């Protein structure tokens, strides 16, 4: 039996501000704890590399994805299926060529404040669509690493896997 390919980390950490460049110019964004709690229960999220659909690691090919909100942020654990695309992703993470994560979300509920010409969005609730392994994230404290160093997340992942079998 081959050793499973596991990557894990934090897609974002609570209360960190990021500078976002969007269609309407530059603004600052921050997520509150609990923002994705309802969304992750639905289990409709995908994993991508660099947000590219051409290198889509959708759940059919990806493997077991577990998401969990804890006191630090949105944590994830992925037991990758044994295929070429996943070996490539695993090796890029292992070798430190990619070590961050980005999130894509929709239907956000937020409070917006303006200070002079600066706009600030405090995201209170949103539907998580995907997490993407990236080189240059908006949220600099995001991290992806080989293995799982979060024992609570690892236990939840094992329970999820057992329930889906």
Order of helices and strands: EEEHEEHEEHEEEH
Query: What integer value in Å does the Rg equal?
Result: 16 Å
DSSP helical segment count? 4
Instruction: Determine the mean pLDDT.
Output: 83
Q: What is the CA-CA span between the terminal residues? A: 18 Å
Strand-residue proportion: over 45%
Q: Indicate the low-confidence ranges by residue numbers.
A: 54-60
Q: Helix content range of the residues, please?
A: 10-25%
Counting DSSP E segments of at least 2 residues, the number of strands comes to 10
Using brief descriptors, characterize the structure shown.
single chain, 165 residues, alpha+beta, six-stranded mixed β-sheet, four-stranded antiparallel β-sheet, 4 helices
Give a brief description.
By secondary structure, the chain is α+β, with helices and mostly antiparallel strands.
Describe, in plain words, how this protein is organized in 3D.
- It is globular and about 55 Å long.
- Helix content is 21%, strand content 50%.
- The longest helix is centred in the last third of the chain and has 14 residues, at 151-164.
- The model is unreliable at 54-60 (pLDDT under 50).
- The strands form two sheets. Strands 2, 3, 4, 5, 8 and 9 form a six-stranded mixed sheet that branches. A four-stranded antiparallel sheet has the order 6-7-1-10.
- A hairpin with a 2-residue loop joins strand 2 (18-22) and strand 3 (25-31).
- The chain has 165 residues and is an alpha+beta fold.
